[in-house]
Amino acid sequence: MQQSAVPELAHTHTRPIHWVATATAVAGVVALSSFVQPGSATAAQPTTGTPHKPAAVAPPATTGVDFPLQCGPVKAVVAKKTTGDLDGDGRPETVAVVHCDSAMGTPPDGVYVLTRSADNGTPRVVATLVDPKDRLTVTHLSLHAGTVGATLLGYSSDAVPNCCPDVKTPTKWRWNGNAFVRSTPADAHSV
Question: 87: exposed, middle or buried (C-beta count within 10 Å: 0-12, 13-18, 19+)?
């Protein structure tokens, strides 16, 4: 057995004084935080010198949306969602990953973009980024600077069982003014 070149350190064994010091430090932080509070909020609007900003628009909710998904007797489940302004109009959209509620197996996902209708503001699907018939599962969903990112798990052939996707593909979509354009980096690989 080789001996350590570093002598045994005294601080590697906790003693009651260590616990007392830790408890004192935590109590100090708690006490200090009770004195440092944010300023009080007011509902008054500024009256001079500041132009009026329009109220922020809430992103479309997924509740009650009729997704283009055939689930039969079971309902559609929103597994993931993210929101942000995808088309640069100042109003947020919602990107939702949706699949049929299944007690067994891994049902394929659909990825949909929702916006609010101009007439009554109700959420509606305006684009399908991933169609469930493509047999893909979404493991990651993000939205950054108007770009939707997702990691898709799929199958190299129809012979691969639904339980065991064998292809992992990072994918991005960006609005070009007319449609969402998909880009797939060259690093798609087998799982």
Answer: middle
